[in-house]
Amino acid sequence: MRTTFHKLFWLWQLPKEEAWINEMAEHGYGLVSAGRVTYEFEDIEDGKYRYKVLFLKGSFSSEKNREFLKFMEEMDVHNAGHVSYPGHTVIYLRYDSSLEDFDVYSDLDSKIEYERTMVNYLLFATILNLFAWVLNMIIFFTNCARGYPSYISLACALNLILAVFLIVNILKHTNRIKEYKTEREIHE
After folding, report:
1. For 132-161, how does the pLDDT look when each residue is reduced to its tens digit (9 = 90+)?
2. H-helix or E-strand containing 15?
3. E strand or H helix at 52, and its extent?
4. Do 31 and 40 meet the contact criterion of CB atoms below 8 Å apart?
5. Which uninterrupted H or E stretch holds 177?
6. How far is CA 102 from the centre of its chain?
7. How far is 132 from 87, CA to CA, in rounded Å?
8. H/E element holding 34?
């Protein structure tokens, strides 16, 4: 039997999303497809599968990502779904829980590259939100100057709040990059 759950995870919360999907698998729900806030599960034996959630550059159908998925299939790790974003893809990988757990971002350079990719993506979203906030503020002040009854719109407030939220997460990822670089210098 298939069951659908709706849950919101921000893009930078991939580890939290992965933990939730693995918790669902422990309770007999195997992921079969994913959307931005929609997850479809099928009944499985409790703990039969484990899942990895990856943020990859390029579209799902790009040559590099197809080669990566083919390589993973050869290692008995299967695609359980994907969500496309502009220029990137979140891929959900499923593997038998009897297999040894693995980390795709196992070396420091790949961890740094992942964090940089996330920072760039979040920075782009932050700039868009700040731009929308500025436009909304211009409209607000223009309306006030003309004597029209005006108020700061909910969209304006949400743009600013989201931009601040994104900046906080950019700083977290930037700090991780610094930690990884420090760690790399120690090991060299």
Report:
1. 999 988 888 888 888 876 667 777 888 899
2. helix 14-26
3. strand 49-57
4. yes
5. helix 154-187
6. 19
7. 21
8. strand 29-34
